[in-house]
Specification:
heterodimer; A: 170 residues; mainly alpha; 9 helices; B: 325 residues; alpha+beta; 13-stranded mixed β-sheet; 3-stranded mixed β-sheet; 8 helices; 18 strands
Chain lengths: 170, 325
Amino acid sequence: VAGTLTHFDHADELGGLYAQHHAWLHSLLRKKLGCWHRAEDLAHDTFLKVLVSNAATALREPRAFLTTIAHGLVVNHWRRQDLERAYVAALEVHGATHGPSPEERALAVEALCRIDALLANMPPKARHAFLLAQVDGLTYAEIATRLGVSERMVKKYMAQAMHRLLLAEA
Amino acid sequence: VANDEKADAVRAAAHWFAVLSADDVGEQEHLRWQRWLAADPSHHAAWQRVQALQQRFADLPGQVDRRIASHALRRAVEGRRRTLKTLAGLATLAGTGGAAAWLAAGTADWEPWAGDQRTGTGERRRFALADGTQAWLNTASAVALDDDSGRRGLRLMRGELLIAAGADARQPRRPLEVATAEGRVSASRAARFDVYRDAGCCRVTVFEGTVDVLPAATPLGASVSAGRQLVFDRAGVGAVGVAQALRAAWSTGVLLAEDMRLADLVAEFARYVPEHVACAPEVADLRVVGAFPLDEPARVYRALESALPVRVTRRWNLWTRISAR
């Protein structure tokens, strides 16, 4: 990361960018998120990302550049919130006897986000089968029953899922 | 050519992963895999990547129950579809009016409006079925009548429904059934119960009588008796707990908090108002007892401010923040 920082050797440049566009970006994010504080957080994160990215583009097309970065952060934000909600609901469904502490919960959601990012854009059935096998540790026969398909189909989903993962990672 | 070979090796590695993850792997299969592995360095490299990926899925913090993690990951996809649609819709919105419309869309479940009865945010409606069963539809909810000769049925598409069912007047008696995407809730005798559908889960709370719950994707259901509640999704039922009076009190226009966390109260209250309501973490765990009028948000906020060390900040009727005073 240190290397990329050299793009913004001149703190003035970033300062200028911030002064000129922060209010605009904040209002854009506020409309997207409906929350002043979250907008503030994400605006801050956006400028942090600019700091470690390509300054030339940022300075040439500042608003387009900031919008692109901010959009990515908003998507992540909602994704994270969906995961957190799903995690809490899953705890309840499985009748967890005691809820996790805030720290444990944050760690768990973090881990779920990492796994979820790997599975982005995977076809739903392949994703489902893959999670049941790799995370729940179910057998193909059990997965076949759960999904209402043949074991051969489960094997096909597994190959498809792993193939996607390998391609996405390459 | 080298790229093609690499692509083939990757495809073959994925295939072998699926073969070897199966329940029973034969000796022959194993030998064939080993031959493939040894045949070319690119095979070996591809296989190592398979193993590294597997490791990343095994990599959960120790205290995280794997079943729960998997459950959450599978369910989050449903929320995802909603998010993507919401983001797509954003492009056409502008100004504060747009933001308000978007907030409303953000809390919507992504099922089309197909209900015979539906309510907007903050609305409640009472209606009766042909057999005399009384029903109340809570805020932002939709329900369709689904009667046929064999049963008295309702389909809850979104939101919350409270039912006071009498015994069927017709013979033979037909059970009263509430169906959702997650499964079926049915009562064969007189019963009063609430079904609340949220984020791929249903909560059933029973006040009188007994109801049976049958999730959509498993034959293993459960019975819930008066004074009990249970959460279920397509894949199964959770543990039975004590019914919250809150889940019936809304039909009288009251949010009933019986020693409730402030954050939970705020989340519940947020369902009834168009604006976004957020609770700051430092006050989230304050306990609240009280009956709050659902139709008068301003009074609710004033009551919270007078009973708790909190400040309620409202902005442009778009969001409300409850933080420490």
